[in-house]
Amino acid sequence: MHLSRLAMSVGQSATLKLNELAGILKAEGKPVVHLGGGEPEEKIPQGAYDASLKKLDTRYIRYTATSGIPELKAEISSYTEKNYGLKPSAKNIVVSGGAKQAIYNFLMAVVDPGSEVVFPAPYWVSYPEMVKMVYGTPVVVRPEPGKLLPDIQEMDRHITSNTRAVMLNSPNNPSGMIYPEEFVRELVEICEYRGVYLMMDDIYNRLVFGGASAPNAFALSKQPLNDSIIVSINGVSKMYSMTGYRIGWSVASEAITQAMVKIQAQITSCPSALSQAAAAGAMAEQGSFVEDLRVQLEKKRDLLISELKKFKKVKIHIPQGTFYSFPDFSAYEPDSEKLSKLLLDKAMVVTVPGKEFGLDGHLRLSYCGSEKDIVEGLSRIRKILDA
Ligand SMILES: Cc1ncc(COP(=O)(O)O)c(C=O)c1O
After folding, report:
1. Is residue 235 lining ligand 1, measured as CB closer than 6 Å?
2. Pocket test for ligand 1, best of 76, 126, 322, 357 (most atoms within 8 A of CB)
3. N or C: fewer beta carbons within 10 Å in the chain?
4. In the predicted structure, residue 210 carries a pLDDT above the cut 80
């Protein structure tokens, strides 16, 4: 039977594959430590729980408007006003099945077959495959060896007349780096001048440490939202520990939002009504859920860094946000796939090879799990590598 070229060319998600593997090993009773995870271990906020039950109690779980329910859009609008100083209307917002679907809506709305989408390495593992899924060409801009930030001139050099969009994820998965304000400002200018969209993947923008904040691209542009080339992506998965609900969103000009709504209507009709109610409940809660999670993650980040400092030859880049770190292990083994496999085989520790994020020599180590796992995982790795 025939499989499409797309089905045959698109890669499996490396991180989801590792999550499955960790689950299988655990179920087999193996003493595996999972430092490859991508979700907080916290329970969902009370507001999400209450709103889920309230909605379920109605026993009416129907289709909603394609772009989302008004209550959730109102929460997203307030969130955007509070965190970006800009109040989008309901016509600037699309609620989706996770930030992932919001990114697909965006890519499908702007990419023609063969047109290019530019993004820096290290990138979120899914970006290249997502661009390929819409028949676009991913164009990766790499930093100089030893660095995580590419020169802005290099970004500019890779943007051509065939470029439709630039994608930036800040704070960044896998490195935890916040792109400097000057870099984002110049990127906004370049994209506006060249007339290409700038997609800001802000899914970790509240999970930042040491008083830092991720530069807000909208504030670095003079364009009003409805003339803007900026498309901001966010969601409840990470900051509210609601990965399983699958709710994300985009904030953008009305013109591109309309195109994204048309696309989403033909793909899923609408996001789950139950999940939308839960997300609105989480966002309406006046409590300190996000701040408490942020504080927990900062503590875990500090713990991970202090454990990494015990290694003889690891080069550390201190994460400024997210729940990932991206240390350079190349002094031990430059092939990150080989190293990750060795650590799984010999130490039963799951890590993600840097190669999956476009930079070999590094490993992505998550600190969203328990403190015990962080200490145990790194001490097992050290026993193998520094023995
Ligand atoms: C950078 C980045 N963007 C988007 C997503 C997708 O988030 P969601 O679970 O809301 O689809 C993830 C999830 O890992 C991510 O790390």
Report:
1. yes
2. 126
3. N
4. yes
Locate tokens 């990932």: which residue?
A: 324
Architecture of domain 46-284: 3-Layer(aba) Sandwich (3.40)
Please say whether the beta carbons of 171 and 322 come within 8 A: yes
| Other Cβ atoms within 10 Å of 229 Cβ, number | 22
Which sequence spans correspond to the domains of the chain?
A: 5-42+289-385, 46-284
Find out whether the beta carbon of 98 lies less than 6 Å from any atom of ligand 1: yes
- The structure's pTM equals 0.96
> What is the whole-number distance in angstroms between the Cα of residue 3 and the centre of ligand 1?
28
Both tokens of 108, joined, read 């499908």
The band of 319, judged by pLDDT with boundaries at 50, 70 and 90, is very high
Atom of ligand 1 nearest to the CA of 101: 11
Ligand 1 mutation pick, 129, 238, 242, max ligand atoms within 8 A of CB:
238
Contacts of 46 (CB under 8 A, 6+ apart): 285, 287
> Which atom of ligand 1 is found nearest the CA of 172?
1
At 84, list the tokens: 């970006």
Task: Using a pLDDT cut of 70, give the percent of the chain over it.
Answer: 100
Does the pLDDT value for residue 16 go beyond 80? no
38 C-beta neighbours (distance < 10 Å), count: 23
What the block records as the tokens of 194 is 């060249």
Band of residue 118 on the pLDDT scale cut at 50, 70, 90: very high
Give CATH for domain 5-42+289-385. Answer: 3.90.1150.10
The dihedral sign for the CA sequence 20, 24, 27, 29 = negative
Ligand 1: distance of its center to the CA of 242 in Å?
A: 11
